[in-house]
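user: can you give me the structure for this one chain? tokens are fine.
assistant: on it. calling the predictor now.
[tool input]
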Amino acid sequence: NTSYHSPATSDELYGGGVKLCRWIKENCADNFSGHIMTFAWNEFEEGGWICPTYNADLSVNTDRIKVMKKLAELWKTELGSMK
């Protein structure tokens, strides 16, 4: 009988990472340390995971891992020279 917020889609997760990148670039003089810390845990109810999960058909879903890889590449490209 518990209801949870719908998990973020891959596009929503990537969009959030792009917004973070833009914010860092706009505010780097005061705030950029050369590091971005992300975290995830096994609280699936709260949406904080990046580990593979299963789709309804029991196929493996690696979408979140793929999004994090794509974001890491973006951040390295866009922010790597700002250290």
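assistant: here you go. The chain has a mean pLDDT of 84. Strands lie at 53-54, 60-61.
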